[in-house]
Design brief:
Aminoglycoside 3'-phosphotransferase, Chain: A, domain 2; mainly alpha; about 10% strand; 7 helices; two-stranded antiparallel sheet; 4 strands; about 50% helix
């Protein structure tokens, strides 16, 4: 749903600006990097490079997004194997559709996103932003866990899907 049809709807709390991503990366370097192996630090650097170097533009025409389509907010009707409902609209607002696609990628994988794409069309740039955001979820939650001394946050997003390309592979040009 385009922003022009949503008078009075504010920006989603899930929206991140370039300054937000730079700040997160700086916090990762300060807080998380000392705990990571060298190859892990390099993986995080490669993941953030397209955004920090400006190769992955973040400017979009905002649309209505849920902002947190994690499994604990999606109700499944297991008998019919269909979507039963969506809950927790605390982060709903205007934003980049990559926000919702990223969460679906991270938790359910690329096959589901390919299926969603037929009903909810999006372009390759949106998919690339979604891959970047999906790769940031575990890092973001680990950072929250370390910062707030909450071990449950360190493991909150373990076990998600892994069939989407890492950011450095998605950004390669043939």
């Amino acid at each position: 749903m385009p922003a022009s049809e949503l008078a009075g709807v504010g920006v989603s709390h899930a929206v991140r600006t370039m300054d937000d991503w730079r700040g997160m990366y700086a916090r990762l370097e300060e807080t998380l990097f000392p705990l990571l192996f060298r190859n892990q630090r390099e993986s995080v650097r490669r993941h953030f490079a397209p955004v920090l170097e400006g190769r992955l533009p973040l400017e979009v025409d905002p649309v209505l997004v849920h902002g947190d389509l994690a499994p604990y907010h999606i109700l499944i009707d297991w008998e019919s194997e269909r979507l039963g409902g969506v809950i927790d609209f605390g982060t709903v607002g205007l934003g980049d559709p990559a926000v919702d696609i990223a969460t679906l990628l991270a938790h359910y994988g690329g096959r589901l996103v390919d299926d969603v794409r037929t009903a909810y069309p999006f372009d390759d740039a949106t998919y690339e932003r979604a891959c970047f955001r999906a790769g940031c979820l575990e890092l973001e939650w680990a950072l929250i866990g370390l910062t707030h001394n909450d071990p449950s946050m360190l493991v909150a997003h373990i076990g998600g899907a892994r069939d989407y390309p890492p950011m450095d592979a998605a950004m390669e040009t043939p």
